[in-house]
């Protein structure tokens, strides 16, 4: 059986669910036609957010400039202090005023259960010996005071948040005397970061912050005031190899619906790198229901999966949801492109993985989002 982290042939998607395989490109086209899901506030200066993830000890040669740089985890391969500090030193050398980093499952030093032997002398008196997978996944274990990582000007988040201030650009030019000068106020953005990932395949102790797939490691953990959510795992049904072969977390998706951040940055799934607008509406709910209902089919062999055609044919709720995706998507396009309306409360989901598939080389470019 193929790895759940690798994209399947297109034929597998049609075999498992011809309905969602045909609906997927139409759904994506409607999302793009609706335009930007969130525009900067009126009279406010835009904030440029540069998103990267899964660099695995390597350095992207030309990271775009911006106001905020976010790294969504997997700085390292073996999780050692050596590798992590080298990656941090590279990030510190970049010119972005604000920088935020979380860890991923390959950054084992940050999870005491996953530290290499060479780094275990930092664990005081074995105080983390009894840490369970669930505890390490949803609670902050404050070992930062004893950390050997020199973060410099980087904000490292591990089940924690930071509020950043973005000052307007210096505009000293003077217009004609009849036009009053306006001075934009600083903008504030609250960023929350958490590293935990569902262990959808057996993972050894070297993989940090893993939790059993059916364990809810997310509900109620993200502050409601979060503007930018940074996780290592994707949410289910968004840039996670969906439909059918989803690797994202359904509980994280529910948490994203509760908070509805302006921007949700993640990585982990190299083959789904990219960006996706989200509108938190009936079209999105219907699409997510279709993906969730078909996720169980990923476990079937191709022979058994051939029944997907008949299951879709006699699935009235699936056809209703497919119609909802199309109807509400078209209405969204009409509202945005013909009536000129803005979609209130939308946002972006970004899979910022820079590692190109399983090549061992960086190939997916950084994603830049303007808020």
Automatic annotation (TrEMBL):
Signal peptide positions on this chain: none
Name this protein carries in UniProt: Calcineurin-like phosphoesterase domain-containing protein
Pfam families: Metallophos (PF00149)
Domain of life: Eukaryota
CDD domains documented for this protein: MPP_239FB (cd07379)
Domain Calcineurin-like phosphoesterase: 49-271
Annotated InterPro entries: Calcineurin-like_PHP, Metallo-depent_PP-like, UPF0046_metallophosphoest
Organism of origin: Penicillium chermesinum
Gene Ontology MF annotations: hydrolase activity
Residue stretches spanning the membrane: none
């Amino acid at each position: 059986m193929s790895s759940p982290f690798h994209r399947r042939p297109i034929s597998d998607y049609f075999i498992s669910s011809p309905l969602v395989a045909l609906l997927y490109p139409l759904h994506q086209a409607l999302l793009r036609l609706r335009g930007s899901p969130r525009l900067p506030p009126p009279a406010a200066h835009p904030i440029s957010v540069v998103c990267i993830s899964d660099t695995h000890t390597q350095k992207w040669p030309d990271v775009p400039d911006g106001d905020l740089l976010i790294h969504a985890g997997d700085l390292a391969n073996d999780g050692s202090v050596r590798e992590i500090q080298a990656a941090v030193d590279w990030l510190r050398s970049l010119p972005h005023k604000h920088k935020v980093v979380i860890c991923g499952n390959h950054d084992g030093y940050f999870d005491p259960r996953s530290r290499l032997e060479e780094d275990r002398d930092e664990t005081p008196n074995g105080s983390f010996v009894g840490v369970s997978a669930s505890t390490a996944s949803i609670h902050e274990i404050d070992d930062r005071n004893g950390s050997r990582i020199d973060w410099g000007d980087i904000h490292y988040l591990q089940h924690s948040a930071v509020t950043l201030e973005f000052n307007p650009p210096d505009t000293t030019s003077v217009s004609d005397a009849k036009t009053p000068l306006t001075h934009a106020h600083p903008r504030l953005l609250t960023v929350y970061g958490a590293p935990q990932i569902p262990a959808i395949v057996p993972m050894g102790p070297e993989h940090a912050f893993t939790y059993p797939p059916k364990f809810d490691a997310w509900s109620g953990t993200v502050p409601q005031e979060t503007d930018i959510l940074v996780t290592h795992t994707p949410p289910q049904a968004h840039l996670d190899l969906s439909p059918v072969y989803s690797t994202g977390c359904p509980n994280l998706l529910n948490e994203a619906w509760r908070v509805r951040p302006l921007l949700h940055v993640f990585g982990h799934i190299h083959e789904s790198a990219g960006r996706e607008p989200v509108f938190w509406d009936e079209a999105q709910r219907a699409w997510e229901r279709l993906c969730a209902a078909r996720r169980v089919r990923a476990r079937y062999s191709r022979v058994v999966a051939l029944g997907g055609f008949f299951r879709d044919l006699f699935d009235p709720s699936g056809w209703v949801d497919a119609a909802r995706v199309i109807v509400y998507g078209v209405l969204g396009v009409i509202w945005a492109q013909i009536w000129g309306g803005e979609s209130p409360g939308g946002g972006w989901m970004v899979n910022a993985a820079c590692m190109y598939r399983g090549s061992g080389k960086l190939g997916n470019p950084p994603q830049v989002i303007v808020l």
